[in-house]
Amino acid sequence: MHFSKKFKQALRETDSHLVVGLDTDISKIPMFLQSEVNPVAAFNDLVIEATKEYVCGYKLNIAFYERGPEAGFAAIRSTLAAIPENLITIADAKRGDIENTTELYAKAFLDDFGFDSVTVQPYMGQDSARPFLRRKNKFVWMLALTSNYGANDFQFLKVGRQPLWEIIVEKAVSWNDQKIGFVMGASHTRELEKITKDLPETPLLIPGIGAQKGSLEKTINSLNHSLFVINQSRSIIYSAPKAENAEEFKSITGEAAQKARDEINGFLMLKKK
Amino acid sequence: MHFSKKFKQALRETDSHLVVGLDTDISKIPMFLQSEVNPVAAFNDLVIEATKEYVCGYKLNIAFYERGPEAGFAAIRSTLAAIPENLITIADAKRGDIENTTELYAKAFLDDFGFDSVTVQPYMGQDSARPFLRRKNKFVWMLALTSNYGANDFQFLKVGRQPLWEIIVEKAVSWNDQKIGFVMGASHTRELEKITKDLPETPLLIPGIGAQKGSLEKTINSLNHSLFVINQSRSIIYSAPKAENAEEFKSITGEAAQKARDEINGFLMLKKK
């Protein structure tokens, strides 16, 4: 199924715009899981069990899985196997290289692991995205305006009358308007307003809420379409650091996810009035 | 030892500006190695034995090690262990993310694996480089003007009077002028001329010769300093596809590396006249 279709279906079926980021740091895993054979995998399983009713999908930042990589990559596999099939999966790899090399990243993340989609760096241009776009039912989230402080270094540079991020968006859409969406940080509300107006059918992945302290209400109010997911990680997956067993962990973590989903939906409903 | 010092020493001691790219594709490994427990590791060992007298260092593009990742990452470890200590090592990872996340990449590549240096994407700005720069004896090769066709999409965009790549170089040097060098594709001779004139102490990693068909002579002639390495991969490591045993493989591969090193040095000497 084309990602676009899967995405819209997931948004509808789950009634959720929340993506939980499984950015699992082994040092933050509760004590009761530390003795597991693969604590990261076990932790992720519990998070998924606790939150799957409340989310549209899951995002794994690959950096968290490259240390002790043998165990890390095994954890990716088992985590993906635990995610319900109708939910979207994002490999937050932020990769980009010459075409032949990017083909290998595409094989690894989209073919072998089987993620639905992947985040991609724009700097090296079209051939660094093409291998990902070649896969029929897959999707690229191109970095456009990121949520970190360093976004100010280059992303707002004026090229003629337009900021760099906007030129990147226009260019990327010209390569493939069906299979490319963009990463736009939650605090960039003016720009979110513009991109959702100019590109009403283009999905957005929005990080920067939660631990990164964006204002959810302002973000939601800036959006002119609803093909978006909001990523939250630490504020959900680490909401139960002192949990002493699986039931307690799932109860607290599930509640955090439910609250996050409801908060997003609440602001969406307020908008409609 | 500071990378800068190690780098200069290596250039001097080896009398070589050649870096061999260990971009090892298991499907291109000669038959006689296919039955090894870890063919990629075995192949790399032979390439290193064959070429270590002729190179300044080795570069591993991490994409080649992320498929069948368990074996891939084990190959990285054994390969690094086989590289003589005075040669420079480059993790061609082209990573970049928010600071907390980039810290994990820095731990993985610079601390755990122990690479001397790493390639980094500029788009997310300073905090996406900072964790790499924090490591005392390590070094960042920031992408500036890449060797692929997609370089034309964004890297030459005019910001005021300057192209984007140049703004990135200036900005990066302002963060840390001791520990940042740049990736500049071999065919960009005009820009190589400029950057080596403006920044006479800033190391350059130059891909795009060999299989990517740049003109070595033109490239060498454009350089105004000698703190550079030229990366060649496929034209060296795959020069002996039909080799039937280790001795034959090493003989042919070693010759290819020697020839490449001598060619670079030959053009350098011609320049001095």
Polypeptide structure, described:
The structure is a homodimer of 273-residue chains. Chain A has one domain: Aldolase class I (TIM Barrel, Alpha-Beta Barrel), CATH 3.20.20. The mean pLDDT of chain A is 94. The radius of gyration of chain A is 18 Å and the shape is globular. The two termini of chain A are 35 Å apart. Helices cover 45% and strands 16% of the residues of chain A. In chain A, helix 2 crosses helix 11, helix 8 runs parallel beside helix 9 and helix 9 crosses helix 11. The first copy, chain A, is an alpha/beta fold. In chain A, helix 8 links the parallel strand 8 and strand 9. Chain A has an eight-stranded parallel β-barrel, surrounded by four helices.
In short:
Chain A is of the alpha/beta class and 273 residues long.
Whole-number mean pLDDT of chain A? 94
Assembly state: homodimer
Q: Which of globular, elongated, flat, extended, rod-shaped describes the shape of chain A?
A: globular
Hey, roughly how much beta strand do the residues of chain A contain? 15-25%
For the record, what CATH class of chain A applies?
Alpha Beta
Give the CA-CA distance, first to last residue of chain A.
35 Å
Question: Looking at this structure, what is the CATH superfamily of chain A?
Answer: Aldolase class I
The spatial strand order of the largest sheet of chain A comes to 1-2-3-4-5-8-9-10
What's the number of extended β-strand segments of chain A?
Answer: 10
Give helix % range of chain A.
Answer: 40-55%
Largest sheet of chain A: 8 strands, parallel, barrel
CATH architecture of chain A: Alpha-Beta Barrel
Compressed to H and E, one letter per element, the order of chain A equals: HEHEHEHEHEHEEHEHEHEHH
CATH topology of chain A: TIM Barrel
Helix-and-strand structural type of chain A = alpha/beta
Radius of gyration based on Cα positions of chain A: 18 Å
The two chains with the largest interface, and their residue counts, are: A-B, 51 and 51 residues
Uncertain runs of chain A are none
DSSP helix count of chain A? 11
- Total of domains of chain A: 1
